[in-house]
Amino acid sequence: MSTKIRWGVLSTAAIGLKKVIPAMQQGRYTSVVAIASRDLAKSREAASALGIPTAYGSYEELLADPGIDAIYNPLPNHLHVPWTIQAAEAGKHVLCEKPIGLTAAEAETLIAVRDRTGVTIAEAFMVRSHPQWLRVRELLDEGRIGELRSILGFFSYFNVNPANIRNQVDAGGGALMDIGCYLIHASRFAFGEEPARVVASIDRDPQMHTDRLTSAILEFSAGQSIFTCSTQLVPYQRIHFLGTKGRLELEVPVNAPIDRPTRLVIDSGSDLFGGGIATETFPICDQYTLQGDAFSEAVMDGTEPPVSIEDGVKNMAVIDAIFRSGKSGQWESPEIRS
Questions:
Q1: What is the pTM of this model?
Q2: Region class of 274: left (phi > 0), else alpha (psi between -120 and 50), else beta
């Protein structure tokens, strides 16, 4: 295989056009060679604007192209699994946007497909490639904050447009699926285990029926994670990791900017007014570039990608449990069959 993985992109979704494709075009191991849309004019327009050599008027045509090694799938949530399966069956490796499916059971079907086809399939939690997240892992592992006992997370934005795919419940819209998934992933990543049970409160939009305000407690053997996510609040995001001897705080945990450095707060807790705070600054980088390279390297080396399907299924199982708790009003346990 060449020194670069040749990528095709399914759809002209905004996240691909504005963030992921331009970033991957800067990658050391990534080359974006084709894009597809159900509307050929749209794919041609996108290809022209981004300098992509080939445009297709159907997803099937792109998957049939022998000159493509891997697929980036940024389709709406309800199309993640179906088109990831089709791509895998066509012999393409797949980096699929989060959340990887609508339910854990649906996502789990990808394991058998991957094993049968021999391709690499991963969930696109780009945060796992950012240096600030890798540093959090290092600090937790070395006991910088003592024993991790509590995680506090918040993620919100304001969008009440019913035409927006994030506000369409049948397409897998809503706060928990769109942004709460990051807070769940962060909690599982930091504690290094799965929550035994969860409890949640969910407020749904009366017209669109998507969850617009969801709060949850995740109970781990080592401690608890508490988070709130919302699609109808002032835009904000922050994650705190609190231990027995200190605290870590990610200032912009998910949408890390590409035009300024990011900062990680390390607080010894010696002074409530901030006297015990040290700040680590990370140079400007693009986590989507790093994500594309990490996946491409995994394909070339035959190694595990940053976020495996198994990990994605476990994240979805927590999402399922939170939705169940929102209905039952009771603690619910994530269900993993495999």
A1: 0.96
A2: left
